[in-house]
Amino acid sequence: MTVRARPQLDCWQGVIRRYAEHLPVSNVTPIITLNEGNTPLIPAQNFVEAIGGNFQLFLKYEALNPTCSFKDRGMTVAVSKARERGAEIVICASTGNTSASAAAYAARAKMKCVVLLPHGKIAQGKLAQALMYGATTIAVKGNFDEALRIVRELGESGKVEVVNSINPVRIEGQKTAAFEICDQLGDAPDFHFLPVGNAGNITAYWKGYKEYHAAEKSDTLPRMFGFQAAGAAPIVDGHPVANPHTVASAIRIGNPASWEGARNAIAESDGYINKVTDEEIIAAYRLIARTEGIFVEPACAAPLAGIANCVRDGMVPEGSLVAATMTGHGLKDPETAISAAGFSPTVVEPTREAVERVLGL
Ligand SMILES: *Cc1c(COP(=O)(O)O)cnc(C)c1O
């Protein structure tokens, strides 16, 4: 049998191939990709109506990346560069999504992956991912910040490649989401809202918007609006938080690695950072699912609650163009979803009458 030539796929092939000119890659960089990026920008006018706003809202639905969070954009670059340098082991500390992404890209690169997770504090879907992709999974009896400290120390030994966002190429990959939004909207939005945990993403988006603007691929720059959870709001409160707590596990971080980057993004863009309570997070989490059919993980509800508060406080002028990043998929955290939903299935006998009774028919 003759061997067929590999087809030249006429489809999206990931953020490195699409945006190579803006990324720290060269012809010799092996491209480790799962075709991440190219995520939809979904209008969400039902939500705007529900919160009493009068502006246009677009959600960058990063849940549709290969491991269901935005972390894949940075990980494709981090793992490709690690491979290029001949590293054999990648390591990260994670509240869940970084480990899922690192484990997947390492598997594809035929590299070893080690993940350090805060013991008992990560969402089940994310844990399932790390285990399935075959990462060496270590549960640290402590919080994310403690796990990251250990990873930093191991990184200094030179034996492992750290793929947390303290690795600058992660930020480089993540900035491609800002490029995509400009390409999708035809320009930058007026406001960009996003959740802030370790603060890598707000740093990355602002870098991306600035670079696209400098390259004359967009005419304007957005104001960056970040939201932390009230129990894990070091940047808003102005000091590290020793025992961060919030239902939104992806942003349960007390001492953000990119604190400075977040501060710059907010200062340079005439932006804003504030916190929202867990009650506000859960309310927005339910509202976006019920009004738009968009299921996100709780961290994504922080900027949604933030938008609602900004509308209430008159901070979003009528007719504004607002983008918000939905960083991860709702299915990653089924326990929180089932408890937040507020009801469970009605159990009935297997008869038509029983179902009619439930429906009141
Ligand atoms: C990582 C993550 C965040 C926080 O992003 P930072 O870059 O750490 O600020 C928010 N939401 C989800 C779903 C995440 O995975």
Structure description:
The chain is globular. Helix content is about 40%, strand content about 15%. It is α/β, with parallel strands linked by helices. The chain has a six-stranded mixed sheet, sandwiched between helices. It has helices at about 15-20, 45-50, 70-85, 95-110, 125-130, 145-155, 170-175, 175-185, 200-215, 235, 260-270, 280-290, 300-310, 335-340, 350-360; strands at about 40-45, 55-60, 90-95, 110-120, 135-140, 160, 190-195, 225-230, 270-275, 320-325. The chain has 15 helices and ten strands. Helix 3 (about 70-85) crosses helix 4 (about 95-110), helix 4 (about 95-110) packs parallel to helix 5 and helix 7 packs across helix 9. Helix 4 links the parallel strand 3 (about 90-95) and strand 4 (about 110-120). The site of pyridoxal-5'-phosphate has 17 residues, from helix 9. Pyridoxal-5'-phosphate (PLP) binds near residues 196 and 199.
What is the topology?
Elements: H1 15-19, E1 41-43, H2 45-50, E2 56-61, H3 71-84, E3 89-93, H4 97-108, E4 112-118, H5 124-132, E5 136-140, H6 144-156, E6 161-162, H7 168-174, H8 176-185, E7 191-195, H9 200-214, E8 223-229, H10 234-237, H11 259-268, E9 272-276, H12 278-292, H13 301-312, E10 321-326, H14 334-341, H15 352-359
Parallel strand pairs: 2-10, 3-4, 3-6, 4-5, 7-8, 7-10, 8-9
Antiparallel strand pairs: 1-2
Helix pairs in contact: 3-4, 3-7, 4-5, 7-9, 8-9, 9-11, 12-13
The structure holds pyridoxal-5'-phosphate (PLP).
The whole-angstrom Rg is 21 Å
Q: Return the structural class.
A: alpha/beta
Strand content: 5-15%
Total helical elements = 15
What are the low-pLDDT stretches, counting only 5+ consecutive residues below 50? none
* Total beta-strand segments: 10
Please report the distance between the alpha carbons of the first and last residues.
64 Å
| H/E element order | HEHEHEHEHEHEHHEHEHHEHHEHH
| Mean of pLDDT | 96
Shape call: globular
Main sheet attributes: strand count, strand direction, barrel closure: 6 strands, mixed
Ligand inventory reads: pyridoxal-5'-phosphate
Strands of the widest sheet, in order across it, are: 1-2-10-7-8-9
Helical percentage? 40-55%
